[in-house]
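Entry 12.
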Amino acid sequence: MASSEQLKALIKSHISRDDGHFYSVAMQMAAHEAKLGHGRLAEELRDMIDSAKTRLGQDASGKLVAIGSAAKPRSELANLLTVTYPAARLPDMVLDPLASAQLHRVIKEQRLLARIKEHGLSPRRKLLLVGPPGTGKTMTASALAGELGIPLFLVRLDSLITKFMGETATKLRQVFDAITDIRGVYFFDEFDAIGSQRGLANDVGEIRRVLNSFLQMIEHDQSNSLIIAATNHAEILDHALFRRFDDVVEYHLPTPPQAIDLIRSRLGSFAPKPFNKDGLALQAEGLSYAEICRAVNDAIKDAIMHDQNKVQWAVLSCALGERRLISNKLAQNNKNAPNHAGSSQR
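Predicted 3D structure (tokens):
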């Protein structure tokens, strides 16, 4: 049976016309009923929600509309936003304790959004993710959307940033209008493209104007969406940005125990026996989460192609070694690349 808090959250989200939060709470109620063994009721609730979503989307404004189970960008926004409905969850990730605690706190505050707002407060929803490539920043955006049952919108910086004066700021305004219109997770990847420090040697006037516009828009944003920015180069971000975000979440290369947990989880039933933890930890040292996942996937594919139900230790070791060679080569290339003041490598 629905809790009193869920019922109040449903009514408040309906009054405020926050469809995204309304459906999120309704899906939580359906999931709760399913856990209680009320499968028929849970299925009926899900069918009602899907049917209601299908009826949404009378597009008169050229903005975002909901069609079926997904919100889709229309008109000019289709070039600025790419939408998905991720199935990822936080347990799918291997995180250090601090980052895990921060993200679970965000999810809890979002799920109790109505209760927090009753007291004139706002839940955490503006996050800055910083850390090396392949350490889980993009996966975090997917996991947060999956946990909350809301769409993930990737902001396409290649379409957002143009050479024409004033046009980029106008497009950014359209993105923030969408953030207000449809609740979702809005992900600005490689955020240093617009967030680098004003006054750097290679700074141009248009980017300064875009950064100033972003600072103003995120400062005044009062929507129910989550805004997530990610960068590999936190050191070049403008200092004024940091106080605009509710939390800064740091990502690092996995420790040996984290690497082992990731490999074991990724292998699943394909895990070789015996499982040589010490040898794997040595092979995975210095690799990112993404690199380890690619190596494990390569080993699993090899097993499948050879009609084997277990990954061969030698194949997995070789796959990790290949990823290490690629990683070292890229690191060397980056080290030898010209390092102009304020430049960033993506």
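Annotation: The chain has a mean pLDDT of 81. The chain has 15 helices and eight strands.
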